[in-house]
Here is the input.
Amino acid sequence: MKPIINKLSNQAGMIIFPILFLWKKKKYRVFLLLSVITVLLTGCFNHFFRTGTLQGIDAAAMQRLQSQEKYFILHVNDGAMAMDSVRIQKDRIDASLSALPAGHLHYLNPKIEKANLIKAKEKNVVLAEVHLYYTGKIDSTQSHFSAGLSEFNRVDVYEFDPKTTTFNHVMSVAGIIAGTVAIIGLISLIALAIACNCPQVYVDNGNNYEFVSGIYSGSIYASMERTDYLPLPALQTGNELKLKIDNVKNEVQYINRIQLMKVQHREGVKVLANRQGKVFTCTNLQTPFAATNGNSTDVKKLIVAKDNETYSFNSTANENGLSNAILIFKKPADVKKARLVVHGGNSLWSGYIYHRFAEMFGNKYETWRDQKDKSDPKEMEQWQKDQALPLMVYIEKNGNWEAVDYFAHTGNTAARDMIMEIDLSTNKDVEIKIKLETVYQFWNLDYAAMDFSVNEETTVLFIHAQSALKSGNTDQTDALKESDKAYCQLQQDDALGITFTLPDNNNNTDSYFLISTGYYHNIQKYEGAPDLKTLNSFKSKGSFDAYSRQQFSIIEQSLVETRNVRSIPAGK
Here is the structure.
Protein backbone atom coordinates (compact mmCIF):
# COMPACT_ATOMS: atom_id res chain seq x y z
CA MET A 1 0.00 0.00 0.00
CA LYS A 2 2.91 2.37 0.59
CA PRO A 3 3.47 3.21 -3.10
CA ILE A 4 -0.19 4.17 -3.42
CA ILE A 5 0.04 6.41 -0.37
CA ASN A 6 3.19 8.02 -1.76
CA LYS A 7 1.46 8.72 -5.04
CA LEU A 8 -1.49 10.07 -3.12
CA SER A 9 0.79 12.43 -1.24
CA ASN A 10 2.54 13.65 -4.38
CA GLN A 11 -0.77 14.32 -6.15
CA ALA A 12 -2.58 15.69 -3.09
CA GLY A 13 -3.54 18.98 -4.62
CA MET A 14 -5.00 17.23 -7.64
CA ILE A 15 -6.72 14.25 -6.04
CA ILE A 16 -7.55 14.58 -2.39
CA PHE A 17 -9.79 17.63 -2.21
CA PRO A 18 -12.68 16.24 -4.36
CA ILE A 19 -12.39 12.93 -2.56
CA LEU A 20 -12.83 14.59 0.80
CA PHE A 21 -15.87 16.53 -0.35
CA LEU A 22 -17.55 13.25 -1.26
CA TRP A 23 -16.22 11.44 1.80
CA LYS A 24 -18.29 13.71 4.02
CA LYS A 25 -21.41 12.24 2.40
CA LYS A 26 -21.68 8.78 3.94
CA LYS A 27 -23.90 7.38 1.21
CA TYR A 28 -21.02 7.74 -1.28
CA ARG A 29 -18.28 6.13 0.79
CA VAL A 30 -18.52 2.52 -0.36
CA PHE A 31 -18.58 3.51 -4.02
CA LEU A 32 -15.89 6.11 -3.49
CA LEU A 33 -13.38 3.82 -1.83
CA LEU A 34 -13.62 1.26 -4.62
CA SER A 35 -13.30 3.97 -7.26
CA VAL A 36 -10.34 5.73 -5.72
CA ILE A 37 -8.20 2.59 -5.73
CA THR A 38 -8.93 2.14 -9.42
CA VAL A 39 -8.13 5.77 -10.19
CA LEU A 40 -4.81 5.77 -8.39
CA LEU A 41 -3.71 2.75 -10.40
CA THR A 42 -4.66 4.17 -13.80
CA GLY A 43 -1.89 6.79 -14.08
CA CYS A 44 -4.07 8.98 -16.32
CA PHE A 45 -2.77 12.38 -15.21
CA ASN A 46 -1.94 14.09 -18.50
CA HIS A 47 -0.23 17.35 -19.52
CA PHE A 48 -1.35 19.78 -22.21
CA PHE A 49 0.00 22.63 -24.32
CA ARG A 50 -1.43 25.27 -26.64
CA THR A 51 0.08 26.53 -29.88
CA GLY A 52 0.18 30.24 -29.06
CA THR A 53 -0.45 30.83 -32.76
CA LEU A 54 0.46 34.20 -34.30
CA GLN A 55 -0.43 35.29 -37.83
CA GLY A 56 2.95 36.97 -38.22
CA ILE A 57 6.04 37.95 -36.27
CA ASP A 58 8.59 40.78 -36.22
CA ALA A 59 12.32 40.90 -35.56
CA ALA A 60 12.01 42.00 -31.92
CA ALA A 61 9.72 39.09 -31.05
CA MET A 62 12.01 36.64 -32.85
CA GLN A 63 15.03 37.95 -30.95
CA ARG A 64 13.17 37.49 -27.66
CA LEU A 65 12.41 33.88 -28.56
CA GLN A 66 16.02 33.34 -29.56
CA SER A 67 17.22 34.74 -26.21
CA GLN A 68 14.95 32.18 -24.51
CA GLU A 69 16.87 29.41 -26.31
CA LYS A 70 13.86 28.24 -28.28
CA TYR A 71 14.13 25.44 -30.85
CA PHE A 72 13.02 26.67 -34.30
CA ILE A 73 11.28 24.35 -36.79
CA LEU A 74 10.57 25.34 -40.39
CA HIS A 75 7.36 24.07 -42.02
CA VAL A 76 7.68 24.06 -45.79
CA ASN A 77 6.73 21.85 -48.77
CA ASP A 78 4.29 19.94 -46.50
CA GLY A 79 7.21 18.86 -44.32
CA ALA A 80 9.33 20.18 -41.45
CA MET A 81 13.05 20.79 -40.91
CA ALA A 82 15.23 21.89 -38.02
CA MET A 83 16.60 25.44 -38.15
CA ASP A 84 20.11 25.70 -36.71
CA SER A 85 22.40 28.71 -36.23
CA VAL A 86 19.42 31.06 -36.51
CA ARG A 87 20.29 34.71 -37.21
CA ILE A 88 17.87 37.64 -37.18
CA GLN A 89 18.96 40.68 -39.18
CA LYS A 90 16.46 43.52 -39.51
CA ASP A 91 13.40 41.83 -40.99
CA ARG A 92 15.09 38.70 -42.29
CA ILE A 93 15.93 35.31 -40.85
CA ASP A 94 18.85 33.11 -41.88
CA ALA A 95 19.43 29.55 -40.70
CA SER A 96 21.05 26.24 -41.51
CA LEU A 97 18.63 23.42 -42.27
CA SER A 98 18.83 19.79 -41.19
CA ALA A 99 16.55 16.83 -40.59
CA LEU A 100 14.46 16.96 -37.43
CA PRO A 101 15.72 14.78 -34.56
CA ALA A 102 13.36 12.05 -33.38
CA GLY A 103 12.47 13.99 -30.22
CA HIS A 104 10.88 16.79 -32.26
CA LEU A 105 8.77 14.70 -34.63
CA HIS A 106 5.72 13.99 -32.48
CA TYR A 107 3.88 17.34 -32.23
CA LEU A 108 4.11 18.78 -35.75
CA ASN A 109 0.36 19.00 -36.42
CA PRO A 110 -1.29 20.45 -33.30
CA LYS A 111 -4.83 21.73 -32.92
CA ILE A 112 -4.94 25.53 -33.09
CA GLU A 113 -6.70 27.39 -30.25
CA LYS A 114 -7.31 24.11 -28.44
CA ALA A 115 -5.49 22.08 -25.83
CA ASN A 116 -3.03 19.46 -27.11
CA LEU A 117 -1.98 16.39 -25.14
CA ILE A 118 1.73 16.07 -24.37
CA LYS A 119 3.64 13.30 -22.61
CA ALA A 120 5.13 14.48 -19.33
CA LYS A 121 8.60 13.15 -20.20
CA GLU A 122 8.57 15.10 -23.49
CA LYS A 123 7.24 18.34 -22.03
CA ASN A 124 10.52 20.23 -21.60
CA VAL A 125 11.66 19.44 -25.15
CA VAL A 126 8.39 20.20 -26.91
CA LEU A 127 7.61 23.40 -24.99
CA ALA A 128 10.86 24.88 -26.31
CA GLU A 129 9.63 24.56 -29.90
CA VAL A 130 8.72 27.47 -32.18
CA HIS A 131 7.16 26.49 -35.52
CA LEU A 132 7.53 28.84 -38.52
CA TYR A 133 5.22 28.24 -41.50
CA TYR A 134 6.85 29.47 -44.72
CA THR A 135 4.61 30.50 -47.63
CA GLY A 136 7.17 29.73 -50.32
CA LYS A 137 8.84 26.59 -51.63
CA ILE A 138 12.42 25.41 -51.17
CA ASP A 139 14.62 22.69 -52.58
CA SER A 140 14.42 19.69 -50.27
CA THR A 141 18.20 19.24 -50.55
CA GLN A 142 19.26 22.75 -49.61
CA SER A 143 21.10 23.25 -46.32
CA HIS A 144 20.68 27.01 -45.98
CA PHE A 145 17.52 29.10 -45.62
CA SER A 146 16.97 32.84 -45.89
CA ALA A 147 13.66 34.70 -46.03
CA GLY A 148 11.88 37.84 -44.91
CA LEU A 149 9.79 37.56 -41.76
CA SER A 150 6.79 38.76 -43.75
CA GLU A 151 6.94 35.49 -45.71
CA PHE A 152 5.67 33.48 -42.72
CA ASN A 153 1.89 33.33 -42.47
CA ARG A 154 1.81 31.49 -39.16
CA VAL A 155 4.07 31.14 -36.14
CA ASP A 156 3.35 28.66 -33.31
CA VAL A 157 5.05 29.30 -29.98
CA TYR A 158 4.21 26.20 -27.93
CA GLU A 159 3.07 27.09 -24.40
CA PHE A 160 2.23 24.96 -21.38
CA ASP A 161 -1.53 24.95 -20.66
CA PRO A 162 -1.81 24.95 -16.85
CA LYS A 163 -5.59 25.28 -16.66
CA THR A 164 -6.36 22.31 -18.93
CA THR A 165 -3.63 20.25 -17.25
CA THR A 166 -5.03 20.97 -13.80
CA PHE A 167 -8.58 20.23 -14.92
CA ASN A 168 -7.44 16.94 -16.46
CA HIS A 169 -5.76 15.89 -13.22
CA VAL A 170 -8.94 16.59 -11.31
CA MET A 171 -11.15 14.89 -13.85
CA SER A 172 -8.86 11.85 -13.91
CA VAL A 173 -10.44 11.22 -10.55
CA ALA A 174 -13.88 12.41 -11.52
CA GLY A 175 -14.10 10.32 -14.65
CA ILE A 176 -14.12 7.05 -12.80
CA ILE A 177 -16.02 8.20 -9.76
CA ALA A 178 -18.68 9.48 -12.13
CA GLY A 179 -19.73 5.89 -12.73
CA THR A 180 -20.81 5.56 -9.12
CA VAL A 181 -21.64 9.13 -8.09
CA ALA A 182 -23.88 11.70 -9.73
CA ILE A 183 -21.52 13.51 -12.11
CA ILE A 184 -23.23 16.89 -11.99
CA GLY A 185 -22.95 17.05 -8.22
CA LEU A 186 -19.32 15.94 -8.34
CA ILE A 187 -18.30 18.56 -10.89
CA SER A 188 -19.94 21.31 -8.86
CA LEU A 189 -18.07 20.16 -5.78
CA ILE A 190 -14.76 20.13 -7.66
CA ALA A 191 -15.46 23.61 -9.01
CA LEU A 192 -16.02 24.75 -5.44
CA ALA A 193 -12.74 23.24 -4.31
CA ILE A 194 -10.75 25.14 -6.94
CA ALA A 195 -12.68 28.37 -6.57
CA CYS A 196 -10.46 30.20 -4.06
CA ASN A 197 -8.66 31.94 -6.88
CA CYS A 198 -9.15 35.74 -6.62
CA PRO A 199 -9.31 37.97 -9.75
CA GLN A 200 -7.71 36.31 -12.79
CA VAL A 201 -5.37 38.30 -15.07
CA TYR A 202 -4.92 37.74 -18.82
CA VAL A 203 -2.53 39.59 -21.17
CA ASP A 204 -3.15 40.21 -24.87
CA ASN A 205 -0.19 38.60 -26.65
CA GLY A 206 -1.15 39.94 -30.06
CA ASN A 207 -3.27 36.95 -30.98
CA ASN A 208 -5.33 36.05 -27.93
CA TYR A 209 -5.49 36.62 -24.19
CA GLU A 210 -2.87 34.60 -22.33
CA PHE A 211 -3.49 33.66 -18.68
CA VAL A 212 -0.93 35.04 -16.22
CA SER A 213 -2.07 34.59 -12.60
CA GLY A 214 -4.43 35.72 -9.88
CA ILE A 215 -3.93 38.93 -7.91
CA TYR A 216 -4.02 39.75 -4.17
CA SER A 217 -5.05 36.21 -3.36
CA GLY A 218 -6.17 35.56 0.21
CA SER A 219 -7.61 39.08 0.61
CA ILE A 220 -11.05 37.71 1.34
CA TYR A 221 -12.24 40.56 3.59
CA ALA A 222 -12.11 44.35 3.36
CA SER A 223 -9.80 44.31 6.39
CA MET A 224 -7.30 42.21 4.40
CA GLU A 225 -7.17 44.49 1.33
CA ARG A 226 -3.63 44.61 -0.03
CA THR A 227 -1.52 45.65 -3.00
CA ASP A 228 -0.05 43.04 -5.31
CA TYR A 229 2.88 43.41 -7.75
CA LEU A 230 2.41 40.78 -10.45
CA PRO A 231 5.33 40.22 -12.89
CA LEU A 232 4.04 40.29 -16.45
CA PRO A 233 5.43 38.15 -19.30
CA ALA A 234 7.54 39.64 -22.10
CA LEU A 235 5.32 42.09 -23.94
CA GLN A 236 4.49 42.31 -27.61
CA THR A 237 6.03 45.16 -29.58
CA GLY A 238 4.05 48.35 -30.04
CA ASN A 239 2.95 51.04 -27.66
CA GLU A 240 -0.11 49.36 -26.15
CA LEU A 241 -0.57 46.74 -23.47
CA LYS A 242 -4.01 45.22 -23.08
CA LEU A 243 -5.07 43.27 -20.00
CA LYS A 244 -8.24 41.52 -18.96
CA ILE A 245 -9.30 40.78 -15.39
CA ASP A 246 -12.01 38.14 -15.01
CA ASN A 247 -14.25 37.48 -12.05
CA VAL A 248 -14.36 33.97 -10.56
CA LYS A 249 -17.49 31.95 -9.91
CA ASN A 250 -18.95 32.42 -6.41
CA GLU A 251 -16.86 35.55 -5.80
CA VAL A 252 -17.30 39.32 -5.94
CA GLN A 253 -14.22 41.44 -6.66
CA TYR A 254 -13.58 44.88 -5.16
CA ILE A 255 -10.77 46.45 -7.19
CA ASN A 256 -9.44 49.69 -5.71
CA ARG A 257 -6.49 50.52 -7.94
CA ILE A 258 -4.83 49.29 -11.13
CA GLN A 259 -1.50 50.64 -12.39
CA LEU A 260 1.41 49.49 -14.51
CA MET A 261 4.96 49.69 -13.17
CA LYS A 262 7.70 49.94 -15.77
CA VAL A 263 11.23 49.11 -14.58
CA GLN A 264 14.13 50.06 -16.83
CA HIS A 265 17.28 48.02 -16.20
CA ARG A 266 20.43 46.66 -17.73
CA GLU A 267 20.07 43.84 -20.28
CA GLY A 268 20.54 40.38 -18.79
CA VAL A 269 19.36 41.46 -15.33
CA LYS A 270 16.33 39.83 -13.71
CA VAL A 271 14.06 42.31 -11.92
CA LEU A 272 11.43 41.53 -9.28
CA ALA A 273 9.39 43.55 -6.77
CA ASN A 274 8.87 42.37 -3.21
CA ARG A 275 5.45 42.35 -1.55
CA GLN A 276 5.93 45.98 -0.47
CA GLY A 277 6.69 47.05 -4.05
CA LYS A 278 10.43 47.65 -3.69
CA VAL A 279 12.37 46.70 -6.83
CA PHE A 280 15.42 44.42 -6.69
CA THR A 281 17.79 43.06 -9.33
CA CYS A 282 19.33 39.61 -9.69
CA THR A 283 22.44 38.87 -11.75
CA ASN A 284 23.89 35.74 -10.15
CA LEU A 285 21.30 33.44 -8.64
CA GLN A 286 22.73 30.54 -6.64
CA THR A 287 20.68 27.52 -5.64
CA PRO A 288 21.21 26.00 -2.16
CA PHE A 289 23.93 23.39 -1.77
CA ALA A 290 21.64 21.54 0.64
CA ALA A 291 17.87 21.47 1.20
CA THR A 292 15.91 19.21 3.55
CA ASN A 293 12.41 19.06 4.96
CA GLY A 294 11.14 18.42 8.49
CA ASN A 295 11.79 14.70 8.04
CA SER A 296 15.47 15.43 7.18
CA THR A 297 14.65 14.20 3.67
CA ASP A 298 16.70 15.68 0.84
CA VAL A 299 14.43 17.89 -1.30
CA LYS A 300 17.16 19.77 -3.18
CA LYS A 301 16.46 18.11 -6.53
CA LEU A 302 12.87 19.40 -6.36
CA ILE A 303 13.79 23.09 -6.00
CA VAL A 304 16.93 23.74 -8.07
CA ALA A 305 15.09 24.22 -11.40
CA LYS A 306 11.76 25.58 -12.60
CA ASP A 307 10.45 22.30 -13.93
CA ASN A 308 7.06 21.82 -12.21
CA GLU A 309 8.64 19.18 -9.96
CA THR A 310 7.78 20.74 -6.60
CA TYR A 311 8.19 20.28 -2.88
CA SER A 312 4.69 20.40 -1.40
CA PHE A 313 5.54 20.98 2.29
CA ASN A 314 4.25 17.54 3.24
CA SER A 315 6.76 16.77 5.99
CA THR A 316 5.88 15.76 9.54
CA ALA A 317 5.08 18.63 11.89
CA ASN A 318 8.08 20.43 13.38
CA GLU A 319 8.37 21.97 16.86
CA ASN A 320 5.90 24.69 15.79
CA GLY A 321 3.39 22.16 14.50
CA LEU A 322 4.07 23.15 10.87
CA SER A 323 5.75 21.85 7.73
CA ASN A 324 9.03 23.37 6.58
CA ALA A 325 12.08 23.31 4.34
CA ILE A 326 15.63 24.21 5.42
CA LEU A 327 17.80 25.75 2.70
CA ILE A 328 21.57 26.13 3.17
CA PHE A 329 23.60 28.55 1.04
CA LYS A 330 27.30 29.33 0.95
CA LYS A 331 27.86 32.93 2.01
CA PRO A 332 30.44 35.02 0.14
CA ALA A 333 32.79 37.06 2.34
CA ASP A 334 31.81 40.60 3.32
CA VAL A 335 28.27 40.40 1.93
CA LYS A 336 25.84 42.51 3.94
CA LYS A 337 22.61 41.88 2.02
CA ALA A 338 21.21 39.25 -0.32
CA ARG A 339 17.96 38.51 -2.13
CA LEU A 340 16.03 35.28 -1.68
CA VAL A 341 14.11 34.30 -4.82
CA VAL A 342 11.48 31.56 -4.91
CA HIS A 343 9.18 30.30 -7.62
CA GLY A 344 6.01 28.68 -6.35
CA GLY A 345 2.42 29.21 -5.29
CA ASN A 346 -0.52 27.98 -3.31
CA SER A 347 -1.76 24.45 -3.87
CA LEU A 348 -5.23 23.33 -4.88
CA TRP A 349 -5.32 21.62 -1.51
CA SER A 350 -5.12 25.02 0.21
CA GLY A 351 -8.27 26.11 -1.62
CA TYR A 352 -10.07 22.99 -0.48
CA ILE A 353 -9.08 23.49 3.17
CA TYR A 354 -10.20 27.12 3.08
CA HIS A 355 -13.67 26.10 1.85
CA ARG A 356 -13.90 23.39 4.49
CA PHE A 357 -13.06 26.07 7.05
CA ALA A 358 -15.71 28.44 5.66
CA GLU A 359 -18.24 25.61 5.55
CA MET A 360 -17.98 25.23 9.34
CA PHE A 361 -19.79 28.57 9.71
CA GLY A 362 -22.80 27.08 7.96
CA ASN A 363 -25.63 29.54 7.35
CA LYS A 364 -23.80 32.14 9.47
CA TYR A 365 -20.86 32.44 7.08
CA GLU A 366 -22.06 35.68 5.50
CA THR A 367 -22.55 37.27 8.94
CA TRP A 368 -19.08 36.22 10.01
CA ARG A 369 -17.57 37.49 6.74
CA ASP A 370 -19.21 40.90 7.18
CA GLN A 371 -17.84 41.10 10.73
CA LYS A 372 -14.33 40.34 9.49
CA ASP A 373 -14.64 43.15 6.95
CA LYS A 374 -14.59 45.52 9.93
CA SER A 375 -11.73 43.87 11.82
CA ASP A 376 -8.38 45.51 12.53
CA PRO A 377 -6.14 44.87 9.48
CA LYS A 378 -3.07 44.36 11.70
CA GLU A 379 -4.88 41.75 13.79
CA MET A 380 -6.01 39.93 10.65
CA GLU A 381 -2.47 39.88 9.27
CA GLN A 382 -1.09 38.63 12.58
CA TRP A 383 -3.65 35.80 12.69
CA GLN A 384 -2.58 34.66 9.24
CA LYS A 385 1.08 34.75 10.28
CA ASP A 386 0.32 32.84 13.49
CA GLN A 387 -1.34 30.16 11.38
CA ALA A 388 1.54 30.26 8.82
CA LEU A 389 -0.91 30.56 5.94
CA PRO A 390 1.57 32.70 3.98
CA LEU A 391 5.01 31.23 3.25
CA MET A 392 6.98 32.31 6.33
CA VAL A 393 10.73 33.00 6.02
CA TYR A 394 13.29 32.71 8.85
CA ILE A 395 17.07 32.99 9.04
CA GLU A 396 19.28 31.23 11.59
CA LYS A 397 21.41 33.57 13.72
CA ASN A 398 23.43 32.35 16.68
CA GLY A 399 21.55 29.07 16.72
CA ASN A 400 18.11 30.70 16.78
CA TRP A 401 15.55 31.24 14.06
CA GLU A 402 14.69 34.90 13.47
CA ALA A 403 11.67 35.93 11.41
CA VAL A 404 12.48 37.86 8.21
CA ASP A 405 9.13 38.32 6.43
CA TYR A 406 6.65 36.25 4.44
CA PHE A 407 5.63 35.64 0.85
CA ALA A 408 1.98 36.56 0.38
CA HIS A 409 -0.59 34.21 -1.15
CA THR A 410 -0.41 33.74 -4.92
CA GLY A 411 -3.66 31.86 -5.48
CA ASN A 412 -3.75 28.29 -6.76
CA THR A 413 -4.04 28.90 -10.51
CA ALA A 414 -0.40 29.77 -11.26
CA ALA A 415 3.03 29.88 -9.65
CA ARG A 416 5.12 33.05 -9.78
CA ASP A 417 8.56 34.44 -9.01
CA MET A 418 8.85 36.24 -5.65
CA ILE A 419 11.74 38.05 -3.99
CA MET A 420 12.75 39.05 -0.46
CA GLU A 421 15.76 40.99 0.80
CA ILE A 422 17.76 39.26 3.55
CA ASP A 423 19.92 41.27 5.97
CA LEU A 424 23.25 39.50 6.55
CA SER A 425 25.08 42.34 8.29
CA THR A 426 25.15 40.55 11.65
CA ASN A 427 25.62 37.06 10.24
CA LYS A 428 29.24 35.94 10.67
CA ASP A 429 28.75 32.33 9.55
CA VAL A 430 30.13 30.97 6.29
CA GLU A 431 26.77 29.33 5.65
CA ILE A 432 23.30 30.85 5.54
CA LYS A 433 20.39 28.77 6.77
CA ILE A 434 16.94 29.81 5.61
CA LYS A 435 13.75 28.17 6.87
CA LEU A 436 10.52 28.27 4.86
CA GLU A 437 7.51 27.32 6.95
CA THR A 438 3.80 26.94 6.26
CA VAL A 439 0.69 24.83 6.72
CA TYR A 440 0.81 21.20 5.62
CA GLN A 441 0.56 21.06 1.80
CA PHE A 442 -0.57 24.71 1.46
CA TRP A 443 2.28 25.69 -0.89
CA ASN A 444 4.19 24.14 -3.79
CA LEU A 445 7.85 25.22 -4.02
CA ASP A 446 9.36 24.79 -7.49
CA TYR A 447 12.60 26.78 -7.17
CA ALA A 448 14.68 28.61 -4.58
CA ALA A 449 17.91 30.58 -4.91
CA MET A 450 19.82 33.54 -3.45
CA ASP A 451 21.59 36.41 -5.16
CA PHE A 452 24.55 37.96 -3.33
CA SER A 453 25.49 40.51 -6.02
CA VAL A 454 25.12 44.25 -5.52
CA ASN A 455 21.57 45.46 -6.11
CA GLU A 456 21.77 47.55 -9.28
CA GLU A 457 20.09 50.88 -9.95
CA THR A 458 16.85 50.85 -11.91
CA THR A 459 14.48 53.49 -13.23
CA VAL A 460 10.85 53.05 -12.21
CA LEU A 461 7.87 54.65 -13.97
CA PHE A 462 4.22 54.31 -12.92
CA ILE A 463 1.63 54.32 -15.72
CA HIS A 464 -2.11 54.91 -15.31
CA ALA A 465 -4.56 53.03 -17.52
CA GLN A 466 -5.54 54.76 -20.72
CA SER A 467 -8.93 53.08 -20.43
CA ALA A 468 -10.63 50.57 -18.13
CA LEU A 469 -14.00 49.24 -19.27
CA LYS A 470 -16.14 46.81 -17.33
CA SER A 471 -18.57 44.45 -19.06
CA GLY A 472 -21.27 46.58 -20.63
CA ASN A 473 -18.71 49.31 -21.49
CA THR A 474 -18.95 50.88 -18.03
CA ASP A 475 -15.99 53.26 -17.69
CA GLN A 476 -13.87 52.52 -14.60
CA THR A 477 -10.75 54.48 -15.62
CA ASP A 478 -10.93 57.25 -13.01
CA ALA A 479 -12.09 54.92 -10.22
CA LEU A 480 -8.96 52.78 -10.60
CA LYS A 481 -6.33 55.52 -10.62
CA GLU A 482 -5.82 55.78 -6.85
CA SER A 483 -6.39 53.74 -3.67
CA ASP A 484 -9.37 55.84 -2.61
CA LYS A 485 -12.07 53.28 -1.74
CA ALA A 486 -13.83 53.99 -5.07
CA TYR A 487 -14.09 50.33 -6.03
CA CYS A 488 -14.73 48.67 -9.34
CA GLN A 489 -16.93 45.68 -8.53
CA LEU A 490 -16.93 42.52 -10.65
CA GLN A 491 -19.81 40.10 -10.17
CA GLN A 492 -20.95 36.90 -11.88
CA ASP A 493 -19.48 36.90 -15.42
CA ASP A 494 -18.09 40.44 -15.30
CA ALA A 495 -14.69 41.21 -16.78
CA LEU A 496 -12.56 44.34 -16.82
CA GLY A 497 -10.66 45.29 -19.99
CA ILE A 498 -7.68 47.59 -19.42
CA THR A 499 -5.46 49.36 -21.94
CA PHE A 500 -2.12 51.00 -21.11
CA THR A 501 -0.21 53.27 -23.47
CA LEU A 502 3.49 52.43 -23.16
CA PRO A 503 6.23 55.05 -23.44
CA ASP A 504 9.07 54.55 -25.92
CA ASN A 505 11.75 52.38 -24.34
CA ASN A 506 14.55 54.08 -26.33
CA ASN A 507 16.15 50.67 -26.97
CA ASN A 508 16.43 50.01 -23.22
CA THR A 509 15.47 46.80 -21.45
CA ASP A 510 12.19 47.05 -19.54
CA SER A 511 10.24 44.80 -17.22
CA TYR A 512 6.60 45.39 -16.34
CA PHE A 513 4.52 44.68 -13.24
CA LEU A 514 0.78 44.97 -12.74
CA ILE A 515 0.02 46.86 -9.53
CA SER A 516 -3.40 45.97 -8.14
CA THR A 517 -5.05 46.89 -4.86
CA GLY A 518 -8.25 45.32 -3.60
CA TYR A 519 -10.02 42.42 -1.95
CA TYR A 520 -12.79 39.95 -2.76
CA HIS A 521 -15.66 38.10 -1.12
CA ASN A 522 -16.56 34.44 -1.26
CA ILE A 523 -20.33 34.38 -1.85
CA GLN A 524 -20.71 30.60 -1.79
CA LYS A 525 -23.81 29.61 0.20
CA TYR A 526 -23.26 27.17 3.07
CA GLU A 527 -25.88 25.27 5.01
CA GLY A 528 -26.49 24.06 8.55
CA ALA A 529 -25.58 25.36 11.98
CA PRO A 530 -22.03 26.60 12.74
CA ASP A 531 -19.56 24.07 14.14
CA LEU A 532 -18.52 26.31 17.04
CA LYS A 533 -16.43 23.71 18.84
CA THR A 534 -14.13 23.13 15.87
CA LEU A 535 -14.08 26.82 14.95
CA ASN A 536 -12.90 27.79 18.42
CA SER A 537 -9.86 25.54 17.97
CA PHE A 538 -8.61 27.83 15.19
CA LYS A 539 -7.79 30.51 17.74
CA SER A 540 -4.64 28.56 18.60
CA LYS A 541 -1.40 28.88 16.64
CA GLY A 542 -0.81 26.07 14.18
CA SER A 543 -4.43 24.89 14.20
CA PHE A 544 -4.74 25.13 10.42
CA ASP A 545 -1.78 22.81 10.00
CA ALA A 546 -3.29 20.28 12.39
CA TYR A 547 -6.62 20.47 10.57
CA SER A 548 -4.98 20.02 7.15
CA ARG A 549 -3.12 16.93 8.37
CA GLN A 550 -6.29 15.52 9.92
CA GLN A 551 -8.26 15.88 6.69
CA PHE A 552 -5.51 14.32 4.63
CA SER A 553 -5.13 11.39 7.01
CA ILE A 554 -8.82 10.51 6.60
CA ILE A 555 -8.23 9.40 3.03
CA GLU A 556 -4.89 7.72 3.74
CA GLN A 557 -6.46 5.59 6.44
CA SER A 558 -9.49 4.81 4.30
CA LEU A 559 -7.30 3.61 1.47
CA VAL A 560 -5.34 1.37 3.82
CA GLU A 561 -8.55 -0.15 5.19
CA THR A 562 -9.99 -0.66 1.71
CA ARG A 563 -6.80 -2.32 0.50
CA ASN A 564 -6.89 -4.70 3.48
CA VAL A 565 -10.49 -5.63 2.73
CA ARG A 566 -9.74 -6.23 -0.96
CA SER A 567 -6.72 -8.41 -0.11
CA ILE A 568 -8.80 -10.94 1.83
CA PRO A 569 -9.15 -14.13 -0.32
CA ALA A 570 -12.62 -14.93 -1.60
CA GLY A 571 -14.65 -17.15 0.68
CA LYS A 572 -12.87 -16.10 3.86
Summary: The longest strand covers residues 251-265. Confidence is low (pLDDT under 50) at residues 1-18, 37-43, 173-195. The chain has 13 helices and 32 strands. The radius of gyration is 25 Å.
